[in-house]
Amino acid sequence: MVCRITERTAQSIVTDLEQAAYIRREREGRRTRYVVCADGTLRHPAEAHVPVQDLLDVFTAHDSRR
Fold it and tell me: What is the pTM of this model?
């Protein structure tokens, strides 16, 4: 799959996700590893009760059918 976004845009998205506590950054030597915080909840008041894991399950459900 190809996403036609620039490296700068991708970094901006990652920064936004980190600031919103959806991901956290871990340093491993010279590498940076990003970890999804699946135990958090969504930010919008209408979905504040929905765990991030539920959203991830929607997007990864196809993997279990293979």
Answer: 0.70
